[in-house]
Amino acid sequence: MNAARSRSDASPLAFLPRDVATGMLISTVHRRCQKLLNDALRPLGIEERHFATMAVLDSRGPLTQRQLTDLLDLDKSSLGRIVDELERQNLAERRAVPGDRRAHAVHLSTQGRQRVSEAQQIAGQVGQQLFGHLPPEIRRALDGALRQLLPPPGTDGTPK
């Protein structure tokens, strides 16, 4: 007798302890989401990491690289590479911050603002593909649960 299994029963991680399985499931879903989004963004010449950086700049305006590393939870070298790549494509540029010789703010170019707008439409379509089948109450619960896993703004997220 071979009963049909529901999506929740079909996890190949069911043998793991619950605390381990939850983290592994989140990681697996993340990789799937990132792959689908990167595949969809490829025609624009960007990846999810570029899109995330550009979306923050589009919503917040120019920010220093330090501010971007904090908001995106990236290390300095990773963000530096992302900004280098955006500059090569003329999507963003670094400009000196008046009054601080060492700081540079990252600004979206006109082309960058157009590209992020196109990317947001694509990301919305990918989001619909990934999550559109979920009933609204499940989606709200998922979003709420994931937000609770993030550290409060202004903290480093380490347990006390």
From TrEMBL:
<dbReference type="InterPro" id="IPR036388">
    <property type="entry name" value="WH-like_DNA-bd_sf"/>
</dbReference>
<dbReference type="Pfam" id="PF12802">
    <property type="entry name" value="MarR_2"/>
</dbReference>
<protein>
    <submittedName>
        <fullName>MarR family transcriptional regulator</fullName>
    </submittedName>
</protein>
<feature type="domain" description="HTH marR-type">
    <location>
        <begin position="1"/>
        <end position="151"/>
    </location>
</feature>
<dbReference type="InterPro" id="IPR039422">
    <property type="entry name" value="MarR/SlyA-like"/>
</dbReference>
<dbReference type="InterPro" id="IPR036390">
    <property type="entry name" value="WH_DNA-bd_sf"/>
</dbReference>
<dbReference type="InterPro" id="IPR000835">
    <property type="entry name" value="HTH_MarR-typ"/>
</dbReference>
